[in-house]
């Protein structure tokens, strides 16, 4: 029957391959900027999708299942690269909402298009039924580890 493959190792390997591809896509798209990563691209997409509401660091941490220190580092980097600003809100002086800059809005469409190309590449030859099972299994695993 052979040894079963490690789920954790397979997920890590796929994640690294995807990150490498997205980093290449992002750096090709954002050549005039320094130190931009796939995570910056994901963050821009997340903020773009949620621009109709106030998004705070806590929302960002929750959406990406990351620690406060990681979120802070990513957002500081994006702020120094001119991709986001943090703006006060009238209803709570302690909170600062995260807002995309014009530069980030300009590059969003290109990142989105390139990410869609990668998604198509990933899904080539995989029938919808198998993809549905994949997402069911992923949801169950996330629930099992409490995220």
UniProtKB/TrEMBL annotation:
- Where is the HTH marR-type domain positioned along the sequence? 4-143
The organism is: Lysinibacillus zambalensis
Instruction: Check the record and name the SMART domains matching this protein.
Output: HTH_MARR
Kindly state which keywords UniProt assigns to this record, in alphabetical order.
Answer: DNA-binding, Transcription, Transcription regulation
Q: What protein is this chain from?
A: MarR family transcriptional regulator
Task: Tell me yes or no: is DNA-binding among this UniProt entry's keywords.
Answer: yes
**Which PROSITE patterns does the record associate with it?**
HTH_MARR_2
PANTHER family in alphabetical order: TRANSCRIPTIONAL REGULATOR, MARR, TRANSCRIPTIONAL REPRESSOR OF EMRAB OPERON
> What's the source species' lineage?
Bacteria, Bacillati, Bacillota, Bacilli, Bacillales
